[in-house]
């Protein structure tokens, strides 16, 4: 049940996220929807995959998000010769102590930037699997907890680019969302020349939020209410990917969980204590598409996973708004989805 104190806390902490958003947008011009999705993934305790062609600001976005929060940050430059131990750490024999000493790898940070993740071998990429899912690392039979908050922000070029390896499916499934920045508009590119022409704006970027504030905000997001029809809507969307004729691999149950968590974070960013079907719809492509594998025939017909998700959104009925449950602080007879009915795409 959401209390008055919970609602006040959510309102106060939303202001913290607004400061982070404004800070990141000082560096990434003209891409508010990309910045919002990045913050949504952060608040939903997920990991973000930024996939696009070189030079559009993938690493810049990851760095801007990391520098806007006062927390530990490590960057991993993925290369073909990178070893799994470079990421997770290694136990080294200490001659003086006559015992093994664990040297933590680059994964032991609150925000980990994995630059060009698909330039490393699949074996090295797989070193992230345990840390991304369980927020821990096991070395030589000993388990080490990772700090909180913990988020991996990885960048990659499309698979067809020179010198890259496709991410393993298990790895892609652990990323809550995938985003493409795209080319800026002419106006945004002109503004970029003014801002980035002399020096990098990252040099002047200062933290505007502390890690403990983000942890509190994550706790507030967990209390966002999701009505049963909205949960069923998320399940129906994901289930439809498993039977679609254009897909040979649908979304996993983990995708359903990620979609629900992201919807709760999106509602909190909008200042709401309850999730709407609109939240599910707005995030479906970003959360589901990168997990899907089209059939060979669909690829020949140039059908993309994004198109399939949009088609599923069109065909799946949007739930009717139920009556408000107790404890949400809304008036009698008002909808648990809010006053406005959810829109159809």
TrEMBL record:
Region feature (Disordered): 320-345
Origin: domain of life: Bacteria
CDD domains: AAA
Entries under Gene3D superfamilies matching the protein: Magnesium chelatase subunit I, C-Terminal domain, P-loop containing nucleotide triphosphate hydrolases
Pfam families: AAA_3 (PF07726), AAA_lid_2 (PF17863)
Segments forming domain ATPase AAA-3: 47-176
InterPro entries, per database record: ATPase_AAA-3, CbbQ/NirQ/NorQ/GpvN, ChlI/MoxR_AAA_lid, P-loop_NTPase
SUPFAM superfamilies recorded: P-loop containing nucleoside triphosphate hydrolases
Record-annotated ChlI/MoxR AAA lid domain positions: 240-310
Database matches in PANTHER family: METHANOL DEHYDROGENASE REGULATOR (PTHR42759:SF5), MOXR FAMILY PROTEIN (PTHR42759)
Name listed for the protein in its UniProt record: MoxR family ATPase
Species name: Streptomyces phaeochromogenes
Source organism phylogeny: Bacteria, Bacillati, Actinomycetota, Actinomycetes, Kitasatosporales
């Amino acid at each position: 049940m959401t209390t008055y104190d919970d609602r006040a806390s959510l309102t106060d902490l939303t202001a913290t996220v607004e400061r982070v958003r404004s800070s990141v947008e000082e560096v990434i011009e003209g891409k508010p929807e990309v910045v919002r999705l990045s913050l949504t993934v952060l608040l939903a305790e997920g990991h973000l995959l930024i996939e696009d062609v070189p030079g559009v600001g993938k690493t810049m976005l990851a760095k801007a998000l990391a520098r806007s929060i006062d927390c530990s940050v490590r960057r991993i430059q993925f290369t073909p010769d990178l070893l799994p131990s470079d990421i997770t750490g290694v136990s080294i024999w200490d001659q003086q102590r006559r015992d093994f000493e664990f040297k933590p790898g680059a994964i032991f940070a609150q925000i980990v930037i994995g630059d060009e993740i698909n330039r490393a071998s699949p074996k090295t990429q797989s070193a992230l699997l345990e840390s991304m899912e369980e927020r821990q690392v096991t070395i030589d039979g000993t388990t080490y907890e990772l700090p909180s908050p913990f988020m991996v922000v990885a960048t990659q070029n499309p698979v067809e680019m020179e010198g890259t390896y496709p991410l393993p499916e298990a790895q892609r499934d652990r990323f809550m969302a995938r985003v493409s920045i795209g080319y800026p508009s002419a106006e945004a590119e002109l503004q970029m020349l003014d801002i980035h022409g002399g020096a990098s704006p990252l040099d002047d970027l200062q933290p505007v939020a502390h890690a403990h504030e983000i942890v509190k905000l994550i706790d507030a997001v967990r209390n966002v209410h999701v009505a049963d029809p909205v949960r069923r809507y998320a399940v129906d969307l994901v289930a439809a990917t498993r039977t679609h004729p254009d897909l040979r691999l649908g979304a996993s149950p983990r995708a359903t969980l990620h979609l629900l968590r992201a919807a709760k974070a999106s509602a909190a960013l909008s200042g709401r204590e309850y999730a709407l079907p609109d939240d599910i719809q707005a995030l479906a492509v970003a959360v589901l598409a990168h997990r899907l594998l089209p059939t060979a025939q669909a690829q020949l017909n140039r059908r993309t996973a994004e198109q399939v998700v949009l088609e599923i959104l069109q065909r799946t009925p949007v739930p009717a708004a139920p009556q408000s449950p107790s404890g949400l602080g809304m008036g009698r007879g008002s909808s648990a989805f809010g006053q406005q009915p959810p829109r159809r795409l």
